[in-house]
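task queued by scheduler; priority normal; single chain, no ligands, no partner chains; default sampling; output format set to structure tokens
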Amino acid sequence: MTAESRDEGAGAVRGEDAGFGGADSSATTTGVATGTSGHPDTGSASGTSGHPDTGSASGASGHPDVTPAHGTTTHGAPVASSRDADRTDRPREAAHSDHRSLAHSGIAKGEPPQPRPKEPGGGILMGRPFGVPVYVAPSWFLVAALITWVFGGQLDRVLPELGFARYLVSLFFAVAFYASVLVHELAHTVAAIRFKLPVRRIQLQFFGGVSEIEKEAETPGREFVLAFVGPLLSLVLAAVFYLAMKPFEPRSVPGVLLAGLMISNLIVAAFNLLPGLPLDGGRMLRAVVWKITGRPMSGTVAAAWVGRALAVAVLIGLPLLNQSGALGGDGADTGGMDTVTDALLAAILAAIIWTGAGNSLRMARLREHLPELRARTLTRRAVPVQTDTPLSEALRRANAAGARALVVVDAHGNPLSLVREAAIVGVPEHRRPWVAVSGLAQELTDGMRVSAELAGEDLLDVLRATPATEYLVVEETGEIYGVLSAADVERAFVKAMARPSA
């Protein structure tokens, strides 16, 4: 959820291996992180990223999404020539100039790709309200069973005449409660759609739900509204259940069910209004600080640290409140098993909140540096080679030109395929004179053509739409600019996550 959603930014990433296709190169598996941010929420989802909500009282973590979210698996270790190693110490502009001249040694026409949306998945598809898929994750069945068991025990004390049927009533309560959580999530979704923010999916899962909103709100006012509508709907539902239970006897099945749903929605609203990330209240606090300081990152830092303080308070305070009877129980009757259960619940909630706060910080840091992630500066220089060119000859040309990628072209210079770096590594040196580059190449599809002007989330969206290890980077005129390695993007992405904010 995801989401936060998450490179050294604009710095061109250079490989550190001995030579292009050298024997000491090794294949690696990496994942391209995506721009979806996800922030977990308890009882609700808010903000501009996927955030898990927790049902009655819960926290969540997430926004990634490095939430988060969806990833692309790529194979191939970056390989560099000795000339490339020299270029790393040169100013970016100079490196860029070399880059262009060599990249343009072959000319090809091609249109930049159009992203193709992919079904996000995430469990059992329940429907598409407002066009947004709603999934029930397998973990939901675990928490539904837990709610059924706990609420069934409470019903046994209030309505002992129900017998075993109390568990059927409890199961109905669990389903109705998660329907309330879904309404809470739909409030965030409707607000996001109103602000023209794409919503990837809603997922009901352990401890609540996740609304994955793929873009960040443009203003603190919209951020505040996105966060507030979830708890507001939970309060409205609590009022509806309160009015609905008035005609029924308190010790009747409808009376107990409606009272339970009223209290649960009050807990969801109150818990999510706590002013710390990843809760909705944390998003609201972030929006307020953002408005005051003019910097969204300042709001995120403040709300994240308050969230961590809340995690510690939950870990220590929840068991103490339960033992004191402040939450409605009889503290004198609290047994050893109840104490262990309270401590376990507190530990889970605290971990979710703490992790969610940390994820929110990381995702905010990534979003701050994401515009620096540019296809043009991450692209490797490439040399064009004919289909029947021996691999050894192709590598010789690449190393002589200081290039780190090979593009297979036809007789007219039009690109046909990209030689896979991982495939080069797998060919022993003594076999390379007898292996044609076409046998190691991946045929180009439309999705593997990337505009050199792409940057930030637009670049990540294109790469996510068509998973591949290498992409052909082209100018707006269709000329070949070079080859973009997914491994380079992933490394730049990770570096951005670790960079401190300005």
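post-processing summary
- The first helix runs from residue 82 to 87.
- The CA atoms of residues 29 and 473 lie 22 Å apart.
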